Amino acid sequence: MSGHSKWAQIKHRKAATDAKRGKIFSKLSRAVTLTAKELGADPKINHKLAGAIEEAKKANMPSENIERAIAKASAKDGVELKEVLYEVYGPGGSAIIITAVTDNSNRTTNEIKHLLSEHGAKLGERGSSMWAFNKDGKEFTAKFPAQLSGGDIQKFENLLSALDDQEDVQDVYSNADIE
């Protein structure tokens, strides 16, 4: 035998898959906890919570994780999660809205600023990107699409990937139109 085993190959793929699922579960858990804290822990009354639970179930998040996230919302000694909104000037003049759920907004803001500076974007002041969007409930839709081309497309896609990997980031909305 040459020392190769099938398990060694599977182990590396499984570790990568498990890490990805862990990030997704962490984001979904934060969303469930925040929603339960805001509007109550009963999904029959809190329709926003019911939606967050449904989204978690679609991602195959275990029921005990969902229940733990709901329980965390009513715990007196639990960490205080809050939703933070960032307005960003993106590559090629695109406008970006980032929503995050965090227990430490200073840490999250610094991490977001670092990611933005690495990918050719800047954190803006309140209202600097909001003008480019309509707010429909909790969703943001672009009013004015920004055409990206060439190197800006690659910078934009790299930025989205980096933001997706950031644990506190929940949603990213942009007016970028990539063709």
Automatic annotation (TrEMBL):
UniProt entry tagged with the keyword Transcription regulation: yes
GO cellular component, as recorded: cytoplasm
What's the superkingdom here?
Answer: Bacteria
What UniProt keywords apply to this chain's record, in alphabetical order? Transcription, Transcription regulation
Heme is among the record's keywords = no
Domain TACO1/YebC-like second and third, by residue range, is 82-137
Q: List, alphabetically, the Gene3D superfamilies matched.
A: 1.10.10.200, 3.30.70.980
- The chain positions of domain TACO1/YebC-like N-terminal read 5-75
Q: Which PANTHER family match?
A: TRANSLATIONAL ACTIVATOR OF CYTOCHROME C OXIDASE 1
The text of the family note is: Belongs to the TACO1 family.
Write the protein's name: Transcriptional regulator
- Species this chain originates from: Candidatus Giovannonibacteria bacterium RIFCSPLOWO2_01_FULL_45_34
